[in-house]
Amino acid sequence: MIPVMEASRLITADDVAPLARGCAVLGTGGGGDVASGALAARRAVEQYGGVPLIALGDLSPDDVILPLGMIGAPTVGHEMIHGDDQPALILREVERLLGRRPAAVMSSEIGGSNGVHPVGWAARLGLPLLDADAMGRAFPEVQMVSMHVAGLAPTVIVLADVVGNVTAVRPVDGAWAERIARAVCVAAGSSALMADYILRAAEARGALIEGTVSRAIALGRAVDGAADPLGALTAELGARNLLNGKITDLRRETTGGFARGAAVVTGVGGDRGRIITLEIQNENLVAVEDGRVLAMVPDLITVVDTQTASAVQTEGLRYGQRISVLAWPCDPLWRTPRGIEVAGPRAFGYDLDYVPVEDIP
Questions:
Q1: Mind giving me the DSSP string for 150-161?
Q2: In the predicted model, is pLDDT for residue 1 greater than 50?
Q3: What are the structural domains of the chain?
Q4: Measured between alpha carbons, how far is 322 from 315 in angstroms, rounded to an integer?
Q5: Residues 86-109, buried b or exposed e (16+ Cβ, 10 A)?
Q6: Contact 62, 201 (CB under 8 A)
Q7: Where are the alpha helices (H) located in 161-211, listed in sequence order?
Q8: Which parts of the sequence belong to the S-Me-THD N-terminal domain (predicted)?
Q9: DSSP letter (8 states) at residue 311
Q10: What is the C-alpha to C-alpha distance for residues 22 and 141, in angstroms, rounded to an integer?
Q11: What are the tens digits of pLDDT across the range 2-19?
């Protein structure tokens, strides 16, 4: 059973803006633009009331956790707004398949809009939100989640699109989960809502990245009102500022359910004469300068506005933007051999051995 929440652990409308700012930073360019998610979450909280934010320890071992997130290309999701009924469609299908109602909603990925929307989804469904996610950032593929790294197999995956189609699959492993879910997503126009790696609380210990909702809110509040927003954010993250510059070239296309491309950032001020290229697959994956890698997945690489420290998603990159490129360490789970295998540079096709960002000179 879920205990009564204290008022201090209730996500209110006032928490949505800092949550959105923090999620945008943790999105590493992906996870979807936070603006629409913040509007939807705020509206839902105002309509249905605040959302209890609970810890994993607040759940009973047999309680079911419902991870929710949008799957597809962020460039499409920015224009194809999801329907209010999609979470309820998924909830009803999960209840039908499992014979019980989930006890809590969880963000599949804390990064981008996928970290903000679950507040609104939880409010609409009348469920608490778990202070955890499956990435600690954003990743583009279904199997790139902490549950897969921990050795858990997906039981059932449920997708709902804006038309109202509901698809439930039982993949044999994470790789097949990605193939099948991606095919369904592409058929739906490259955007759908998905419940993936549905699991019981007893299975979740050590298989989730805990405290990430609170972390995102703290990041947003650190920047809000700061005299030096970029400095405040860099300090709060423990990040390296790889470059202050402007976008001078941009290649981007939507294919196979992903946004792929590259952005060239030319240094300004003290970084004049330097050029960094960011490789993109929904998220910023690798930062390269003169053939030398400065940061790589699974560490986090985020582009922010130099003046405001507001994160810029990959679909929002524009020629001439004045931006800064920040990089910082990922959750330790992703630095395990299994984590690097699942979401390291070679998982994305790069012929690179992973080197932690803090160890790169």
A1: TTPPP--EEEE-
A2: no
A3: 7-214 (3.40.1610.10), 229-359 (2.40.390.10)
A4: 16
A5: bbebbbebbeeeeeeebbbbbbbb
A6: yes
A7: 174-187, 201-204
A8: 15-169
A9: B
A10: 21
A11: 333 343 489 999 999 999
Count of CB atoms situated within 10 Å of the CB of 172: 10
Instruction: Return the SS3 of 345.
Output: helix
Cα separation of 81 and 214, whole Å? 26
- 261-316 pLDDT tens trace: 899 999 999 999 999 999 998 889 999 999 999 999 999 999 999 999 999 998 88
Tokens of 68: 């929710």
Q: Which residues contact 361 (CB under 8 A, 6 or more apart)?
A: none
Instruction: List Cα–Cα distances, 285 to 30, 42, 97, 293, in angstroms.
Output: 10, 31, 36, 11
The answer to whether the CB of 300 falls within 8 A of the CB of 219 is no
Tokens 């985020």, residue located:
302
Distance of CA 189 to the CA centre of its chain: 20
Q: Of 356, 270, 263, 248, nearest to 313 (Cα)?
A: 263
